[in-house]
């Protein structure tokens, strides 16, 4: 049986009360327009007519160093290469399994709750995932696939297509799907098919959604990270937004008004520019993983970048709709993205209201990055830049703002991007006990040399380069480096630093050091640690800050290198 | 020869151009009144008539627990006990030394600069301290005694009266003072003679000036620290200030006005109250000393306390004199205390202007502590409370405010209370390279049990109590404790916490924990670490944060205890 995408969606719509609720809630908002287009698929166009064949604005970097220039050749075939890599992930999971009972799809459909057991289908396999549901890293979202096939969702969240997930899934195998009910998905267009072309230097941590960082050596080459080399952290497909019809909606909870602004109207507000570093809360996660496995993308030390961001001050915009720094009832500003999944869930996050209205908060609704319109991967046409705060709150493709008494209810605000004690794991985590990460702690990294490099010793010295940053508007006041396990520390030179003073110092510091090494050694381990203007410093090692989500990985950065002559 | 105090001061006045400069500068300011009284000594009254026989306002605590009550018996003889202890510090330093040449005081008088060599006298000893001058922990202040006797200064700075200092001094011995020039100081009244009577539970880290803290067990008994048990960190003798004649002077640099306010006038501004923790930047220094010796008072973990502070908002007062949150030229607010040394140097410090004018800065000129007038040791009649910022900036006995382009030039702002890399010591320190400590990093401590205690194990568990705090308005979100070196961490219960939200959460958190211990063990080491709302956490150990001044001692707190049944 070949089943069309339309049928899958129809089935889904009657399948889940959860989904209905989400749709109802969503349709009240401005984004229901986009949502309508999303589902109004004709001729198998997954995105709808309005979004079809729009040209993606392509921004080719800003001022870059000669080294960066070397990498700047855009590989036109990159998307094709990625597609091939994705294919490699496929395995025999879900294949017919001899000796197990057969179930019809209508039988599977009945198992959608914990009480009735939660069943799902993958290809020919039927699985009872009741026990696993509570441990699902994506939280309750797993319930949206309950009683049906997980395949449409896995097309969206490519992270599921890996051996570990297949292994977990197969451990819950209870049967085979009857031949006549098997779905051969031939006509779902890949929701990521329209993602922009990316720079070849961006090394993907995940393909769908796209998440990538450059190499450390490349990252530390320029104080302002070229747009093309800026780390990309997408949670969903990149939406194509028509700037001509785009409107930002602002809702103020309670009796107060709801207002919309076109891009042109937003650009009439005074244009503000800030220089700010953005960093994913999962930056440097791979190092924490070495202590004990964590759930999350394998970020190296380059899920961080610095740019100038220009746009309208959120403070100005909120004042326009009557929310000032004297507001006492409402406490949070929620941001909703225009990036949706197949269940109409859009990306969302919130920040405390004080940060948005404070004259020193410097929150910008940016339409420019490093002097040019935002690239599609970075939120075109409009994103929030909340300087000093975790990347996850800097919502891209901003569609709606809600000034509220409550935090955003989104998965990413409530059940992700939070820190926990090392003794907590997925089995005993209670997300309500930890605050959402906002201001980020102090961090640093050695960018050159990289782990395993052979480093030339010149007159007994080696050269290092790196970055350091702290959230909350704090400035880096010192970076210390050592090659003898902390017996002696050398002070690094702070080469590049923004002139802004704390508590409004939003950008990273690039540093370098020339440090002595014992000429008798063949190998050394280099450590670095930074101190910020609150004299906060980094924890020494990952053992005591380990957390099951692998966020806030800010222990000393340690790089082992070989010494050459 | 018996020399009177008047003569000593007369000699000093012609001796040092440095001193003249200080006096000239000082006399321009409001405090020249106090200064005049200070030097206008008749009948050997060191402080002057106006300050004589004023009754010291004595404040007997606020609400306290039954345990605290036990300690609350005021030992009327305490001052006497202290005097005895001070006597013990005296040794044979400065005694006649056979075989060394003899010098007259007029010869000594010629040696006041590095070029001419710097000589000083202590009792019968003559010393060439040229080499030592640059390493003097008190910086340039040593030059004020150059070419004369150090004794009047050592009466003021009691810290010099210890074996180490005597040993250092004797290592620079060059001769004996001629018999006829020897000074027998009989008529200098102890500048600390009028210091208030203190609570017997305050354990002195230093007597003159008075610096003291209570025991950890007592400290964690109440969220608001009783005034009598609040740590005292004085840099100079406690001045007696007459509230009837007291005036606070505010100078705004440039062409703008200078205004004075009486206490009554200050009390007419809206009264603001904040709950804030104050902590000395040297709190927990004794632990850092174990890595390598540092210079500074031996503070345990109790140079910290929490109180409600009521007074006038500095923001309101500055607005009154024309300095608002829109000020762009002036950058700092300097505070001058009414506590002076014999050279007319008063205590001083400054904070960045933004903190003073920001609506979320909450800087208070407090005239009340825990609902009663400030006690003498805590700044009566007026002190600055800069919440979230190191104790040293919370200037007591506030006499003058200067809104300036510059930081305070005081010793304590420029050459003290700064953090350095572990590789820096007195020999290579350049104080201009480090920023003055303002906002404090996250810290915590175990208050019960204390090091060496025998702890009762109840059903395999032991009970802990402690505090945690972070500067900059950040809130403690978690405290983790371990008894197995970090293999497993337990989450402490946050018992007492102020309701204020970051970035205006100024008070500490009191916590407790009931944690399992291995019943086979006879001894365990307990560690604690805190995480604040920026997810900053403490460094693990002191080795890598060691600094020669022993400030910012916020590594994990580790307490070794014996287990009993």
TrEMBL record, chains A, B:
> Which leading EC class covers this enzyme?
oxidoreductase
Keywords in UniProt for this one?
Answer: Heme, Iron, Metal-binding, Mitochondrion, Molybdenum, Oxidoreductase, Signal
Task: Please name the GO terms of the biological process aspect recorded for this protein, alphabetically.
Answer: sulfur compound metabolic process
Among CDD domains, the record links this protein to: eukary_SO_Moco (cd02111)
Quote the subcellular location field of this record: Mitochondrion intermembrane space
> Which residues belong to any copy of the Cytochrome b5 heme-binding domain?
100-178
Q: Which GO terms describe its cellular component?
A: mitochondrial intermembrane space
Q: Tell me which Pfam families the record gives.
A: Cyt-b5, Mo-co_dimer, Oxidored_molyb
Q: Which GO MF terms does the UniProt record name?
A: heme binding; molybdenum ion binding; molybdopterin cofactor binding; sulfite oxidase activity
Which cofactors, by name? Answer: Mo-molybdopterin; heme b
Which pathway does UniProt place it in?
A: Energy metabolism; sulfur metabolism; Sulfur metabolism
- For whether the record's keyword set contains Metal-binding, the answer is yes
Which residues, if any, are the signal sequence?
1-29
The UniProt record lists the EC number as: 1.8.3.1
Question: Which PANTHER family has this protein been placed in?
Answer: SULFITE OXIDASE, MITOCHONDRIAL (PTHR19372:SF7), SULFITE REDUCTASE (PTHR19372)
For this entry, the protein name equals sulfite oxidase
Q: Which organism is it from?
A: Ceutorhynchus assimilis
């Amino acid at each position: 049986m070949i089943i069309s995408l339309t049928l899958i969606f129809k089935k889904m719509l009657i399948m889940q009360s959860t989904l209905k609720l989400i749709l109802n809630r969503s349709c009240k908002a401005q984004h229901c327009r986009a949502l309508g287009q999303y589902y109004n698929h004709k001729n198998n166009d997954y995105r709808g007519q309005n979004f079809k064949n729009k040209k993606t604005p392509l921004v080719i970097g800003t001022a870059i160093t000669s080294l960066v220039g070397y990498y700047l050749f855009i590989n036109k075939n990159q998307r094709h290469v990625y597609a091939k890599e994705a294919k490699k992930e496929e395995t025999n999971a879900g294949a017919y399994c001899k000796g197990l009972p057969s179930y019809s799809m209508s039988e599977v459909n009945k198992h959608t709750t914990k009480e009735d057991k939660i069943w799902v289908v993958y290809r020919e396999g039927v699985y009872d995932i009741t026990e696993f549901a509570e441990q699902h890293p994506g939280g309750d979202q797993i319930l949206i696939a309950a009683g049906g096939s997980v395949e449409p969702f896995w097309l969206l969240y490519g992270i599921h297509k890996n051996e570990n997930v297949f292994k977990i899934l197969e451990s819950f195998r209870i049967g085979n799907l009857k031949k006549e009910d098997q779905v051969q998905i031939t006509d779902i267009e890949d929701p990521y098919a329209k993602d922009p072309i990316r720079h070849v230097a961006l090394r993907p941590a995940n393909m769908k959604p796209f998440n990538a960082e450059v190499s450390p050596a490349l990252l530390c080459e320029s104080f302002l990270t070229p747009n093309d080399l800026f780390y990309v952290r997408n949670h969903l497909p990149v939406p194509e937004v028509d700037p001509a019809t785009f409107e930002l909606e602002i809702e103020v909870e309670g009796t107060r008004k709801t207002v919309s602004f076109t891009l042109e109207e937003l650009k009439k507000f005074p244009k503000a520019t800030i220089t700010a570093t953005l960093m994913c809360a999962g930056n440097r996660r791979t190092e924490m993983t070495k202590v004990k496995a964590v759930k999350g993308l394998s970020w190296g030390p380059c899920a961080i970048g610095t740019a100038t961001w220009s746009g309208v001050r959120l403070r100005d915009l909120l004042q326009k709709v009557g929310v000032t720094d004297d507001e006492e009832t409402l406490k949070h500003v929620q941001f909703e993205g225009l990036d949706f999944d197949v269940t109409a869930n859009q990306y969302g996050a919130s920040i405390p209201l004080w940060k948005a209205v404070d004259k020193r908060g410097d929150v910008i609704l940016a339409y420019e990055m490093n002097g040019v319109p935002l690239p599609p991967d970075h939120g075109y046409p409009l994103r929030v830049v909340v300087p000093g705060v975790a990347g996850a709150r800097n919502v891209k493709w901003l569609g709606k703002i809600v000034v509220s008494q409550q935090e955003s209810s989104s998965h990413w605000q409530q059940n992700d991007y939070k820190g926990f004690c090392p003794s907590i794991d997925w089995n005993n985590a209670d997300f309500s006990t930890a605050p959402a990460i906002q201001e980020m702690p102090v961090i640093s990294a050695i960018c050159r040399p990289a782990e395993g490099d052979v480093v030339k010793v010149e007159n007994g010295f080696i050269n290092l380069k790196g970055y350091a940053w702290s959230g909350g508007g704090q400035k880096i006041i010192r970076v210390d480096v050592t090659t003898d396990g902390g017996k002696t520390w050398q002070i690094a030179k702070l080469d590049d630093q923004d002139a802004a003073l704390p508590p409004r110092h939003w950008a990273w510091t690039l540093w370098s050091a020339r440090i002595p090494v014992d000429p008798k050694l063949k190998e050394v381990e280099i450590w670095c640690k930074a101190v910020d203007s609150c004299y906060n410093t980094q924890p020494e090692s990952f053992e005591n800050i380990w957390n099951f989500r692998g966020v806030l990985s800010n222990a000393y950065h340690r790089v082992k290198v070989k010494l050459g002559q």
